[in-house]
Amino acid sequence: MTARGILVVLSGPSGVGKTAVSERLVREDGIVRAVTSTTRPPREGEMDGVDYHFLDRADFERQVKEGGFLEHAEVHGNLYGSPRDGIERQLISARAVLLLIDVQGAQLLRQGQVDALEIFLEPPGEEELKRRIVSRGEEDDDSIDLRLRNALTEIAEKDKYDHCVVNDDLEQAVEQIRSIIEGDWQSRGGIRDETEETSP
């Protein structure tokens, strides 16, 4: 028997704190963040294979045709995807693999019948979400309004997830998600598959 990790989907609207939550969770032994692929150029300080797998469009589209992604989508002109082989390798060596994707990506995983623990991270309210987006100082009024409209659309999908966690207090949200992951791990007995060849 091979102990395998849990694929943990973490979704939520922009500004809800997915990155901050994931950064704290991966400090725990056995929890890692999935390295996804994108065609957007690296930002300052980002490293290929650590932050993302940075691909050109032709290579990305070739991998799509070969079935290399669990899910993929185009966002603001750039392609993003969850590499099947890379995540499979992480699942063999880690207790939990965090996959930060939007509700569209989560829906694609469901359609593909990918076994995953789905958690939706929800803001405590619309006004607080707006405050967090504005506090970044990176958005103009039109962009803020667009992000808020998109956020409300995403929040409407939360009931499709296994769990919903309100990020009112960061540390409490992290602890709640950690408990959910641990409970799921224990319920599965820490055993996922009888072979190492089964895809997630």
Defining traits:
200 residues, alpha/beta, Rossmann fold, globular, five-stranded parallel β-sheet, single chain
Structure commentary:
The protein has seven helices and nine strands. Mean pLDDT is 87; it is low at 192-199. A five-stranded parallel sheet has the order 2-7-1-8-9, with helices on both faces. By secondary structure, it is of the alpha/beta class. It has helices at residues 18-25, 57-65, 84-93, 103-111, 126-135, 141-155, 170-187, and strands at residues 6-11, 31-33, 37-38, 53-54, 69-75, 78-83, 96-100, 117-122, 163-166. It has one domain: P-loop containing nucleotide triphosphate hydrolases (Rossmann fold, 3-Layer(aba) Sandwich). The longest helix has 18 residues, at 170-187.
Question: In a few lines, what is going on in this structure?
Answer:
With about 200 residues, the protein is of the alpha/beta class. The chain is built from 7 helices and 9 strands.
State the secondary-structure class. Answer: alpha/beta
Supply the CATH architecture.
3-Layer(aba) Sandwich
Task: From the alpha carbons, calculate the radius of gyration and give it in angstroms.
Answer: 17 Å
* Main pleated sheet: 5 strands, parallel
Q: How many domains in all?
A: 1
Low-confidence stretches: 192-199
Mean pLDDT: 87
**What's the total count of β strands?**
9
Order of helices and strands: EHEEEHEEHEHEHHEH
Helix content: 25-40%
CATH superfamily: P-loop containing nucleotide triphosphate hydrolases
- CATH class, anyone? Alpha Beta
Percent of sequence in beta strands: 15-25%
Number of helices: 7
Q: Span between N and C termini?
A: 16 Å
CATH topology: Rossmann fold
Shape, per Cα inertia axes: globular
